[in-house]
């Protein structure tokens, strides 16, 4: 969508229920405090919310309705969104477009998930899963090819886990906050070579919510806006084709669409939250987002370019690696962190003079098919 | 073959005079080759145009890993990879382990082997590639 054909839209409220186990709460109970926090942050009342977009993967039918009926919402239109682990960011995008096109003045976005333990069992197990492929193995397979083609050192992946914990130490909302060394990462339990336990995100439960509003509504409400600059959504369509596995094509395509939409360059981005379900994924996404050139991800990680104080800090929240990964909530929580960074409210981990932030999330069942969403937000519209 | 268990994925492949093969399909209309049989050609959309062809007797290993965190039905870490077939498609398969385990770039040949146990503990068979031109028994 071209920028000049739509209204300006902003995030005016964010709410996060920090990710953890929540064994004794229902998914509705987990999610509701995020909604309350986002509305209070925005200053709007529930009567001022025109519509809701709700992302989850495994929580059953009409989750949004189940959450909101317990918060006294009237009969607003509610859309439940599924796009695997990119569901949260896809719900954000749908809400953004719905307001941008004038369908609504305000919208609520919720991402929520209650997870069990262990490897994620995809509902539609495909051939690869049946033969014993796993989610970490898919990223390991990409990492191995990257090491083969570009001589990427194994330490580069480990350094991403070290960075994640370093950032998480500064974020009280992160779940795993103890620092780790490269050696500890490499020596931790083997998962799929070269990836170890400390290089794989853990399952978690939790929720995040946003209130978004049109420019008119922003002015009326007096809330402090963080503006949508652009959005890109792309798909990975592996159909036993001989694609370049070192290049997540969907990340590249979604990023290009978002940069074009926002009419900015990658160099304009000051802070990034990206989908680090596995360290190998983060390294490949550096390249896919254009933060560095193809094949340069290893050097980029090792030289500290994406650390706090580096050229473009990535995952100041600690990312999925240190927060854990409640599937539908992840993409919405990324937007919370970007909003805090752009407002200057990321206490203890504030990226200096952050003006434009990028959120990236990716999901799918195996390499069969997947979704990737990139969102750009800024301090000015 | 039943002595070593059923195929993990029905119709995945078989064995003929030339040895083991994966079940491929070729479109009579446009020549597109796919893995498995389909009712609709993904390229030209012709219905019922896919005829069976054997594929994947050999290939080239594109990438590989060893899986240590195992799903149910596996007893010990196992090597897997993506194999690029001369028919132009890429398949996921197991790899022979040990000293002779194939490396990225190696030419590999197909075998079928018991790979994974079902809930009753019965072994299920599937594709496992090994380095080509090796003399070890299948
Ligand atoms: Zn055809």
Q: How is this structure best described in words?
A:
The complex is a heterodimer of chains A (381) and B (138). Chain A has 381 residues and is α/β, with parallel strands linked by helices. Chain A has two domains: 3-117 and 204-227, Peroxisomal Thiolase, Chain A, domain 1, CATH 3.40.47.10; 132-196 and 229-378, Peroxisomal Thiolase, Chain A, domain 1 (3-Layer(aba) Sandwich). Chain A has helices at 27-42, 63-69, 87-100, 127-131, 135-150, 154-169, 182-187, 215-221, 249-262, 279-288, 297-302, 319-323, 327-343; strands at 9-20, 52-55, 78-81, 106-113, 190-192, 195-196, 205-214, 226-236, 271-273, 356-365, 369-378. In chain A, the strands form two sheets. Chain A has a nine-stranded mixed sheet, with helices on both faces. A two-stranded antiparallel sheet of chain A has the order 5-6. In chain A, helix 2 (63-69) links the parallel strand 2 (52-55) and strand 3 (78-81). In chain A, helix 1 packs across helix 2 (63-69) and helix 6 packs across helix 10. Chain A is globular, with a radius of gyration of 19 Å. The two termini of chain A are 16 Å apart. The model of chain A has no long low-confidence stretch (mean pLDDT 94). Chain B has two domains: 20-55; 56-138, Beta Barrel (OB fold (Dihydrolipoamide Acetyltransferase, E2P)), CATH 2.40.50. Chain B is an all-beta fold and 138 residues long. Chain B has no helices and ten strands. In chain B, a hairpin with a 5-residue loop joins strand 9 and strand 10 (123-131). The model of chain B has no long low-confidence stretch (mean pLDDT 92). At the A-B interface, helix 4, helix 5 and strand 5 of A face strand 6, strand 7 and strand 8 of B. The structure holds zinc ion (ZN).
């Amino acid at each position: 969508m071209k920028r000049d054909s739509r209204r300006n839209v902003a995030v005016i409220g964010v709410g996060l229920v920090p990710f953890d186990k929540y064994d004794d709460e229902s998914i509705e109970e987990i999610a509701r405090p995020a909604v309350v926090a986002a509305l209070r942050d925005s200053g709007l009342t529930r009567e001022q919310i025109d519509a809701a977009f709700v992302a989850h993967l495994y929580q059953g039918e009409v989750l949004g309705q189940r959450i909101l009926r317990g918060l006294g919402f009237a009969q607003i239109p509610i859309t439940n969104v599924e796009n695997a682990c990119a569901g949260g960011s896809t719900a954000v995008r749908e809400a953004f477009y719905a307001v941008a096109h004038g369908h609504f003045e305000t919208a609520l976005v919720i991402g929520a998930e209650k997870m069990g333990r262990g490897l994620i069992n995809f509902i539609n197990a495909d051939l690869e899963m049946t033969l014993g492929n796993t989610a970490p193995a898919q990223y390991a397979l990409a990492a191995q090819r990257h090491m083969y083609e570009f001589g990427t050192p194994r330490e580069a992946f480990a350094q991403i886990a070290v960075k994640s914990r370093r950032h998480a130490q500064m974020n009280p909302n992160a779940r795993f906050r103890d620092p780790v060394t490269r050696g500890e990462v490499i020596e931790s339990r083997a998962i799929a070579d070269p990836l170890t336990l400390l290089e794989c995100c853990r399952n978690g439960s939790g929720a995040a919510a946003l209130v978004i509003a049109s420019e008119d509504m922003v002015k009326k409400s007096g809330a402090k806006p963080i503006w949508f600059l652009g959005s890109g959504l792309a798909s990975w369509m592996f159909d036993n084709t001989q694609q370049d596995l070192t290049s997540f094509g969907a990340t590249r395509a979604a990023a290009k669409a978002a940069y074009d939409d926002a009419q900015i360059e990658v160099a304009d981005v000051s802070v990034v939250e990206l989908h680090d379900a596995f360290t190998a994924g983060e390294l490949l996404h550096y390249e896919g987002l254009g933060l560095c050139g193809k094949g340069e991800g290893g050097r980029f990680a090792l030289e500290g370019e994406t650390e706090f104080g580096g050229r473009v800090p990535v995952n100041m929240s600690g990312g999925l690696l240190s927060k854990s990964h409640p599937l539908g909530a992840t993409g919405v929580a990324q937007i919370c962190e970007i909003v805090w960074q752009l407002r200057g409210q990321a206490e203890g981990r504030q990226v200096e003079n952050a003006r434009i932030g990028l959120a990236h999330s990716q999901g799918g069942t195996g390499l069969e098919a997947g979704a990737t969403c990139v969102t750009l937000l800024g301090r000015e519209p | 073959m039943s002595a070593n268990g059923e195929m993990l994925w029905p119709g995945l492949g078989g064995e003929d005079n030339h040895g083991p093969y994966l079940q491929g399909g070729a479109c009579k209309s446009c020549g597109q080759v796919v893995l498995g049989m389909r009712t609709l050609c993904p390229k030209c959309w012709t219905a019922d145009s896919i005829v069976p062809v054997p594929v994947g007797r050999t290939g080239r290993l594109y990438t590989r890993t060893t899986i240590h965190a195992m799903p149910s039905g596996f007893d010990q870490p196992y090597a897997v990879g993506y194999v690029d077939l001369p028919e132009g498609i890429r398949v996921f398969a197991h790899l022979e382990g040990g000293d002779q385990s194939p490396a990225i770039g190696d030419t590999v040949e197909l075998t079928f082997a018991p790979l994974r146990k079902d809930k009753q503990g019965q072994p299920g068979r599937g594709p496992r590639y090994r380095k080509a031109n090796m003399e070890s028994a299948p």
